[in-house]
Amino acid sequence: MTTREDDFITSVEDDLAEGRLTAASRTLAGLSPVDVIDVLERLGRRDRAVLYRLLPKDVALEVFEGLDPVLQGELVHALQDDEVARLFMDLDPDDRVPLLDELPAKVAHRLLRGLPQHERDMTSAVLGYPQRSIGRRMSPEYATTSPGTTVGDTLQRIRLRLDDAETIYTVPVVDHSRRLVGVVSLRDVLRASPGDTIESVMNEPFAVLATADAELAARECADRKLLALPVTDNESRLVGILTVDDALSILEEAESEDAARSGGAEPLRRPYLATPITAVVRARVVWLLALAVGASLTVQVLGVFEETLERMVVLSLFVPLLIGTGGNTGNQAATTITRALALDDVRPRDVLRVLGREVRVGLLLGTLLGALGLAVVGLLYGTDIGLVVGLTLVAVCTLAASVGGVMPIVARKLRVDPAVFSNPFITTFIDATGLIVYFLIARAVLGI
Fold first, then answer.
1. Which NCBIfam families does this entry report, sorted A to Z (predicted)?
2. What distance lies between CA 72 and its chain's CA centroid?
3. What is the 8-class DSSP label of residue 183?
4. Which CATH superfamily does the domain covering 3-132 fall into?
5. What is the mean pLDDT of each run of 10 residues along the chain (448 residues)?
6. Dihedral of alpha carbons 184, 190, 193, 194, sign
7. What CATH class is the domain 151-257?
């Protein structure tokens, strides 16, 4: 965002705060829909509804479509019934479904009932698929052609669907039973002669089942660099299409969710400034309580080795260094493998290969850090203490990397989000086990 656009946004916020609605309306006219969305995401629920009503009708729908479903739901509650019905009617079926998920059942039912039969049928079809499946995110509005249709007739079909088809750049090819038999790009259609049949220019299709996981389907679309990915049922009948922009939105949501859970919090599912304080607290408190319970293991370990600490107080100086290094090593491994799982570079069957690699990585890291620890600590506190710290770093880094690499794979095998098993829990686990390793090494080396 440029400085000029940022000044516009600040001006709108100031006008709204002072009740200068006419001035705010004039300022809005100088903003693009994307910048209007930025402003709305920074406002509270009441001010957001007030500002939205100041938008011209031709801009309002585009802005509404760009908002997160949670914010759309809040706006629906604030607007009048006729405004809501008009907005809902103008949305595409795949954009209606996330909004319906955010609304009370009675409101959702009333909005669906107000749609024309054709629109209601398409929306209901998308709603019928499981949560988190690609069927819930696909568009049922698309242009198709058939193998025996000529290029000229196909172009005519495409022209008839210019206003309502989700995309025209990739056209699925279906037979008389609507089974997917190929795909053809608009470029190839335009390049061919009008009398050529589609069969002569179409390509082999790649499709996903409507019940497939949305993130995996979106990843396939992105990895294969497809403008659109056909979605089929179990009998290979075409039921929808996933466009690349929707695929990227799904991947962005997944990245945000993984990032939040890796940091020990639940995803907010809305822009930060538009999230109530209570919602932020709820997103964090459960994880903090869970981690606090896990941290009690560390206290128990310290209690068990209390006598060792009393006899060699200097050992307590290095506790933060050792458990911090172990936690960071485990987090690095977990983040790397979680990302590799998301990209399908690693699969659950690769668990032994990952374990072998991470053992070697951890051992090499531990050796480098342990050698440094031995030299520095040995110089300051004596060779025996330096040896304890050095050996502990080798052991803790090896253990942390191994556990951090394997736990996300175990989570995937158990059909649990790998991010949940990564950083917070690994840090807690390594804190406890690292201390046990540390004090056992200290007892063996120092003879206490």
1. mgtE (TIGR00400)
2. 19
3. E
4. MgtE N-terminal domain-like (1.25.60.10)
5. 60 74 77 84 80 81 86 82 78 86 81 86 89 92 94 93 90 94 94 93 94 92 92 94 92 80 69 75 72 66 66 78 88 86 83 94 94 91 90 94 90 76 71 85 82
6. positive
7. alpha beta
